[in-house]
Amino acid sequence: MDGTEHYRPIYVHAKVAIVDDTWTTVGSANLNNRGMRDDTEMNVATFDPEAAHTFRLVLQGEHLGLIHDDDLLALARLRCGAYQSQKDHEQALRIIPYLRETLGDPLVALHMMHERAWENLRRYKAKQSLLGHLLPYLTADEATQQGLDFAEEHGWIEEFQSR
User: Fold this and answer.
1) How far, in Å, CA of 17 to CA of 52, rounded?
2) Spatial distance between the Cα atoms of 157 and 148, rounded to a whole number of angstroms
């Protein structure tokens, strides 16, 4: 708007766990004793190393901005065997090796996510577009130290109302 990037705070309520690229759970349950024992929630858990590893790669690739929305759809269709064009099918087949090469080592991937979050903070402060979806989690004191306008009701990301 007016040549400036604006961001609206987003509350991410994801409940995903991937353990050692082997076991995965996704669902509505909070991943704590109460959420898994007492609350009425639903999760899917799988002990499938290939699925867990691929899920981690795709999730990190998306958050790092390494793959586009169309690629995510092509990957989802490939994974579940749904119909897609030959072009999209071939693109999906190229993405997985790229992600394995780039993010295969979990420690390297974690380091990349940390670096991208801080790079995006620099981009945010310079009013540039973010790359991917990552920003560092800052306390009120840290946001103030970074020169960001912290407001209790929405943190340090500006509250932007569409007109």
Assistant:
1) 9
2) 8
Element holding 114 (H helix, E strand)? helix 106-125
Residue 118 has what pLDDT? 97
- End-to-end Cα separation, the chain, in angstroms: 11
- Contact (CB, 8 A) for 7 and 23: no
Give the span between the Cα atoms of 29 and 79, in whole angstroms: 24
For residue 23, report the phi and psi dihedrals to the nearest 5 degrees.
Answer: -120, 140
- Model confidence, pTM: 0.81
Q: What is the mean pLDDT of each run of 10 residues along the chain (163 residues)?
A: 69 82 92 82 92 93 93 89 91 94 96 97 91 90 87 68 47
What one-character-per-residue DSSP string does 69-108 give?
HHHHHHHHHHHHT----HHHHHHHHHHHHHHHHHH-SHHH
Residue 8 CA: distances (Å) to CA of 38, 43, 65, 160? 33, 29, 18, 5
